[in-house]
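Final report, Chapter 2: Outcomes

The project's central promise was a pipeline that accepts a single protein chain and returns its three-dimensional structure in a standardized token representation, suitable for archiving and comparison. That pipeline is now operational. To close this chapter, we reproduce one record exactly as it appears in the project archive, with the input sequence first and the structure output second.
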Amino acid sequence: MFFVLFVFSAIRYDVGFDYPGYIETIVSGSDWAINRFELGQKWLVLLSRQLFPQFFFIANSFIAIYFTRKAILRMSCDVSLAALTFLSFPLLYLHSFSIVRFWSALAIIVYASTLLQDKRYCFFSFLILVALCFHKGAIVGLLFIPLYLVRIPVWLNIAILCTSFVSGEFVLSQILSNNLPDNMFIERLVNYAESGQGSDGMRKIPYIFLFFDLILLIRLRRYALTDSTNYRNFTIYNIGVALMFLFGFQTTLSVRLSSPFICYLYALIPFVVKFKSTNVQFKDRIIYMLVYWVFCSSLFLYNVNIINSSLGRSQYLPYKIFFMQ
């Protein structure tokens, strides 16, 4: 399945919001346009200019799918369900068609985070540095360290989630207040905050992730999430949902900060759909899985057909292949 996902991503033509911009940079971009990219992406742009423009998307697609597969194999007890989740949920597979550079970095840091379970801190640090060569947003991966080292109790998980619903305006006012330290990270936050809400199609998406977060939170024991590993995975996912709402005043910023933690749904979804470690009968589990398949199919169709306000159409349709143009 992962190979098919790679092929569909690699051979696409004019699919994804940023596709035309990247093609223009590769074919005729100025030195300034290329130099604003991170080192790894800059090399890919220059190499694609020497080979053929589509190589940039082939390489980034390979990185995104390769490291996502490695992460899923390490964190999930059901690879097929995790892969289905990756394919169908918003901000995951389809989103990698648009935010190309960030998703390469994202896939690397999510895989890197799984190494913390084995206390492989040096390799984790190395992969964070590699990810930073693909997108500066990979710095958010450092937040995985305290989340692996410190157990957050249930009451604090609930408090963090509830606080995120009502604190967005306060966070926005602080970012725009000019009272924060002057550095590159803060400057990026201010730029995002000043740019406005962002894509209209993204506003409903946080509630999809919140739905699963609340189910997991309400029924922790039923889903065997009181186990230390599973509970930690839930905490990481809950933090991702909280960040999504906390920075909901700007959808791009919200996605960049929350996506690495949202990806821990790969590890959690089998416990929801298949009711691991419970006495639910086999036939009932089959029903739950069929319902989830239908849900994912509907979610995939919803994602594909979201109208991008800037384009006036879906950024994923019509799907075209680069060697047939």
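Archive annotation: Strands lie at 307-308, 313-314.
This record, like all others produced under the grant, will remain available to the consortium after the project formally closes.
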